[in-house]
Each structure stands twice: as C-alpha cells, then as structure tokens.
From TrEMBL:
Spans through the membrane: 12-34, 40-58, 92-110
Superkingdom of source: Bacteria
Keyword terms, alphabetized: Membrane, Transmembrane, Transmembrane helix
Listed InterPro entries: DUF1980, DUF1980_C, DUF1980_N, UPF0703_membrane_permease
Domain DUF1980 positions: 9-123, 139-269
Protein name listed in UniProt: TIGR03943 family protein
Length: 269
C-alpha cells in the first residue's frame, strides 16, 4: 500500500477551502468580502470543495498492483503516474499560490475599508447610474425623485444610501434647502476640496475588490469636523457648490455626533 503525500496535500487544501468558507458564513464575516446576493453561491462553492475532498481521499492510498497496472485506472485518473515522483520547485510554487489565500485568511487580521483606503482608491462624485438610457430607468429614477422631494427630511440608511446619494448628485438644485440625516465616515479628498470634508461609505457591487466610495461634501462652522476620522451621524441642509466646473451637492452641517462603526459598514447596491 502506497501513501501519496502529494494527493494528501491536495485533499487537505480542498478541505481547508471548504472549512474557510464555512467559517466565514458561521461568523457572518462573509458579507465583509462579498455582496450578500452571492452568499448562496459561496455556500455552494464550499459544498463543492467538500465533495472534491471526499473524491480525493481514495487517491491518497493505492496498492502495489494499482501502482503498476493500467487496468485499475478509473474516470478519476491513474494514481500510479506520480508514484515515486518528488515535488518540483514549479509544483511548490503553484501550491504556495493556491494556499496563500488560506494563509492570509486564517492568520492575518481583517481590516474594514475606511477613510484611508477611500482616499487611495479615489472617490466618485458623479452619478453612478444614468437617468436617460431607457424608459425603465427613467420611470424608476423619477419615482425615487418624487418620493425624496415629498419627504420632509431625507434619512439615509444602508437600504437607500446609494440610491439617494446618486439622485441628489443628479438633481442637486432640486434638493436645495432639504433636510438630511445620514451616517458614514469622514475623510478629506485633497484633490477635489481641502476645505470641505466628505461623509461617505463604501459601495460593494460584487466583492471588496470593486468597492468604491460614494458620499456628500460637508460644510461646517465647526472646524474640528475636518479632523475627525471616525464614523459620525450628520444632520443638516442640502445646498450646492461648484468644484472644478461641476455643481456638487453639499450638506450645511447643523449637528453631528460620533458613533461606533456599524456591524455592516458597507452598502450593497
């Protein structure tokens, strides 16, 4: 009976990938990596990894006859072709690349994206959706616009943050004087305006790799707001300002309070 170390390593990697994805779902941290719409797909991936692990286990053990005779080959392959072979540098390099996500996932602490990452990635100030592509988009945007205009105060939360910010950017003058309340982290984008901080949140369309920041500029008589790097709740009134030849909405801050970072800090449009 032969024991294939290389096949055992492959089986272990499959089991670890399955366990890692299961762990992320069990702790709820999976939503810090992907859009919740894809959680079912990631669960399926975990099951597939586990299924492949059970297929791989028999390949770890082989008799002397199976090691020499092609008649024992199955649709899963011939195990005898690697008997006696040593791990090459190329195989070790490939194996390291494969297990690198596991090493970082199990042993390195995860940090939520915040103000520092927002400045490095860049900030989107233009509307992320078009309002004139087709009749469906126009109807949806007009309905949202009317709902917002009819509201006495705009209260932005994780459900409407992206849609409301996008609509305000598309029609900044129509919201002039409208009261607004929202939560987010504070950052300063020196490329656009060093005088006005921005309150924003990360939008995760598919996964954190495509995350980008959206938010609104702030104007406050309290200069300390510019130096804040925490999460805050801001209440104020919407106005507009011209930056680089573009009219941008801005919140005239009336009141703000520091808060703890939410358990789900990202917005999933």
């Amino acid at each position: 009976m032969y024991f294939h170390h290389q096949e055992a390593i492959k089986a272990l990697v499959l089991l670890l990938f399955s366990g890692f994805i299961f762990m992320l779902h069990h702790t709820g941290e999976i939503i810090k990596f992907i859009n919740p719409q894809y959680t079912a797909l990631s669960q399926i991936a975990s099951i597939i990894f586990l299924f492949l692990f059970f297929i791989q286990v028999p390949r770890m053990f082989i008799t002397k006859e199976q090691a020499k005779d092609h008649d024992y080959c199955t649709i899963l392959g011939c195990n005898h072709e690697i008997v006696g072979r040593q791990l090459s540098i190329k195989k070790i390099a490939i194996l390291f690349i494969i297990i690198l996500p596991l090493l970082t996932g199990f042993f390195l602490p995860y940090k939520d994206l915040g103000a520092e990452e927002a400045v490095k990635r860049g900030i989107c100030y233009t509307p992320t959706s078009t309002h004139n592509d087709n009749s469906v988009t126009i109807s949806s945007s007009n309905k949202t616009l009317q709902q917002m205009l009819n509201s006495q105060e705009l209260i932005l939360d994780e459900r409407n943050f992206a849609t409301y910010v996008d609509t305000i950017r598309s029609y900044p003058k129509q919201f002039h004087g409208k009261s607004i309340s929202l939560e987010g982290f504070i950052l300063v984008d020196e490329k656009v305006s060093h005088d006005h901080p921005l309150i924003g949140r990360f939008l995760v369309t598919h996964c954190v790799a495509d995350a980008h920041v959206t938010g609104l500029l702030l104007e406050s008589d309290q200069g300390t707001l510019r130096d804040v790097r925490d999460w805050v709740t801001v209440r104020g009134e919407i106005s507009s300002v011209e930056k680089n030849g573009q009219i941008l909405p801005i919140i005239l801050v009336e009141d703000w309070t520091k808060i703890m970072q939410p358990e789900a800090p990202y917005i999933y449009p």
